[in-house]
Amino acid sequence: MMKEQMAKERIAEGQCLERQLFIAGLFVPIAGLVLWRIYSLVSLWIPGIFDVCLWDKWFGIYCLGCGGTRALISFFTGHPLLSLWYHPMVFYGIVMYLVFMGSHAVSLLSGGRIRGLAFRAWYLYGAIVLMVLNFILKNILRYGFGITMK
Amino acid sequence: MDEQNYNNQNSWDNQNYGNTQYQGQNYGNSQYQYQGQNPYFQNFEPKKSANTVSIIGMIFGIISIPVSCCVFYNLIFCIPGLICSIIGYRQTKSGVSLAGIICSIIGAVITLIMIVLYIIGLSVLRGGYYHNYFY
User: Fold this and answer.
1) What total number of domains does chain A contain?
2) Mean pLDDT, consecutive 10-residue segments, chain A of 150 residues?
3) Tell me, what DSSP letter sits at residue B46?
4) CA B31 → CA A5, A6, A17, A41, B135, distances in Å?
5) B117 touches chain A (CB under 8 A)
6) Where are the domains of chain B?
7) Phi/psi of residue A26, each to 5°?
8) Residue of chain A with shortest Cα separation from B110
């Protein structure tokens, strides 16, 4: 009985957490637009600062974020597979965000009858794994097979 | 008579409700002694789950690693990520908040390296713009 009670408390706690994440997630598009505007202004202020990866220029290898901007632009211009090639973590993050927010929006509209996607810590750990694997794979393809992102 | 009743009460208290009798003898197992811990919860200790601040800190921390090559731009992610992760770790002591702290620190370290290299690059440059040296 204690175990059942604790399980119910844990479910309620999880639902509260997911609801809070949903509310925080509503601000992501606004924050994204602001960050994109700052990015554009910095590019105007210092021309060419984002055109080349300094890490690649100085150390000769792709960094952990190489291709991220191209992945974002590709995704939002209707090329999701190209986005996946440029940086899988960007594609994964956008898809997870859309699935999470979509499922919880449906849950809210259905009055809780349909349960939204539960948050699991491995969603975040998986992003780290994808980033590291992408870094390793891209550099192997570059120096082992001559396949670059350009 | 009263004195006898009082004495009887004393002996009743000492024999049945004394601490020494309950501690080792009745249950025979130290695991079930009530010493400030509820024995029913010993095997059912809840996991340390992350809260919203921890998760946001970890998300910022993860984003700060690939964005670190954008030099100053990454300060938008690694500083809030570190703050949120530390707050989340103090509240929950969860693995997610700890991972957020680690990711934010990695992002901050890479950003600092990039800033140093950027400043070195600018100091080598002679009166021109960034792209004249790096292209």
Assistant:
1) 1
2) 76 80 92 87 76 78 88 92 93 95 93 88 92 93 84
3) P
4) 23, 22, 35, 66, 71
5) yes
6) 52-134
7) -65, -25
8) A55
